Amino acid sequence: MPKPPAPGAVRPDLEQVFRASYPRVVAVAAKVLGCQNEAEDVAQEVFLAFGRSSVPAGAAAGWLSVAAAHTALNHIRAGRRRADREEAARDDGLVAPDVADTVVASEDRRRVRAALARLPRRQAVALVLRHSGLSYAEVAAALDLSPGSVGTTIRRAETALREELES
C-alpha cells in the first residue's frame, strides 16, 4: 500500500485526478444535497481528504464517489442537528426565523434527504451512487460489493426509503 504524502505535501497525481473526477464528485454530492453550492463545498472536502490519502490513483474514482456520498450525508445530518438547535432556540424566543431559509427549503426534498440519512449507510450510498449515474459495476467496485449484490442492495434501499417516506 502506498504511503500517505508527508504532512503539507501534495500528491503528485492530485491535479490529474481532480480534473478527471471533479464533475462526478459534485454530481454525487448534488444528488444527495440538492444544492450545487453545497455540493461544491463537499467536493472540496473530499479532494482535500484524497490529497492526504494513500488511495491508489487507479481506485480514486470509486473512492471519491463514495467519499462524496458519505460527506454529503454527513452534511445532511449536521444540518439537521443545527436546525434542531435553531428550532429549540426559536422556541425559547432567542433566534428569529430566517425568511430566506424558509423560502429556499422544499418540504419534499427535505423529507427525502432526511429519509435517506436514516437509511443504513451502505444502502444510502449505493442508492445515491446508482442514481448519480454509476453503473452496477462501478457501484460494486466503489462499495467493495459483488456486482450481483448491487441490484439487491439498491432494491432494499429503495424499499427502505419508501418506508421511511411513508412513516
Report the count of strand segments: 0
Helix content: over 70%
Named at the architecture level, the CATH assignment is Up-down Bundle
| Run of helices and strands | HHHHHHHH
Approximate shape: globular
* Tally of individual helices: 8
Please report which band the strand proportion falls in: under 5%, 5-15%, 15-25%, 25-35%, 35-45% or over 45%.
Answer: under 5%
Whole-number mean pLDDT: 82
- Report, as a whole number of angstroms, the end-to-end distance: 45 Å
- Secondary structure class reads mainly alpha
Largest sheet features: none
CATH topology grouping: Butyryl-CoA Dehydrogenase, subunit A, domain 3
What oligomerization state is this entry in? single chain
Cα radius of gyration in angstroms:
18 Å
Please report the first level of CATH classification, the CATH class: Mainly Alpha
Poorly predicted regions:
none
Count of domain modules: 1
